[in-house]
Amino acid sequence: MQLNAVRTLAGNGPTATEQVCVEERKITEIVKTMAEEVKKVQPDMLFLQEQMLKTRQYRWTYISSHSTREILMEFPCLRLPEILLLEMKALHHTDVDKQVTSVMNKMAPMVLLRASHTSTIKRCLETIEDCQESAVKKGLQLETAILCLPSLFNEDASLLFTSEESGTCEVVTPQIFLSCCKEGVPLQYSLVKVTMDKEIIVEDCTDISLTLGVLFSTYFVFGVEYPKGLKKNSYIP
After folding, report:
1. Rounded average pLDDT over 180-191
2. 90: Cα within 13 Å, side-chain hemisphere
3. pTM for the full predicted model
4. Which of 44, 79, 114 is the last residue of a domain?
């Protein structure tokens, strides 16, 4: 009798198809709550990080079969630099923002010395020279060194960064976009963004160093192949 009772209960349980439907509804609800959280003035990053973990498998499947615009509509939290950096850390155990800052601060003097100085970079160097505050000057040197990396390795600078003054750009891989540069000097930007597929991924990063970390994270989080024209820069993180 007990055996029959067990069999009856087992037969009345959810089928594999029903279980999948339940899981899909859970994921849909989680994705919805994440989108609502992002709308807040100060989103709860810990909450979003936890939900990113729960949706990782679904997200990877979604990313592999949808456009950048569709991905950002489904997961608007991927527009937040903090989330991109946290996801990169979860995937590869690397604090890419911290590592970029550490490595580039050490490399900056050598990069500025050895890189070929285009007219754009020369304007940056003039801005550094005119700066009187040591802490600000160090930050400007770091940002200029980042912009110099392609020329140091004889690579295509437009694959790393561009600006409004450069005109229309056809680069579809992740790219740093410097907006409203005073007198055409990249260091005198008003906004710095990350774009991909001509879509704005991150609207406003605080500086070029942070943006480089976000840029690297975007490649991994969105599963984008690194462009051949920047291969030598890929070792930095």
Report:
1. 86
2. 15
3. 0.83
4. 79
